[in-house]
Fold this sequence. Notes:
Number of strands: 0
Low-confidence stretches: none
Amino acid sequence: MGSVVFWNSLRFVVAVLAQVLICNHIDFLGYINPLVYIYFIFLFPFNVNRSLFLVLAFLLGLTIDMFSDSGGANAAACLVIAYIRPFVLRFAFGISYEHQSIKLANTAFGQRMVYIVILTVIHHFVLFSLEIFNISNIVLILENTLFFSIFTILIITLSISLFSRKKS
């Protein structure tokens, strides 16, 4: 139990630091930053208390909001994907999720991509909808969602491939 708390605390801190110190300063094509802090939500253990998970997701988003001066949009977007994560897990992994036997790095590439893509696109759509908050700018919202999602998905997929320990 203690090691689970330690590793998740470390992931939380690394996610915030990576986002604030590195990713917020990338500006690919002049304005696109990968939002890699959501990686914490993707990797959080599936069998932990759901209420605790929702609180941690909210705190993650709120911490990013404090550094980004974004008025709670990140907190709301993180809370939304944390809330719908069980449904997306069930959709992407089926019976493996029901038996709590998923290790993200050891799943099939297609299943992993479905999981990451759905949550990333939803997160980014909620985030940009709240940041822009004007239905007349729906094209801008969709454009930002698409481009930021592609960049974020690429970075997260590469990091899973590079930093995970595959068990043969």
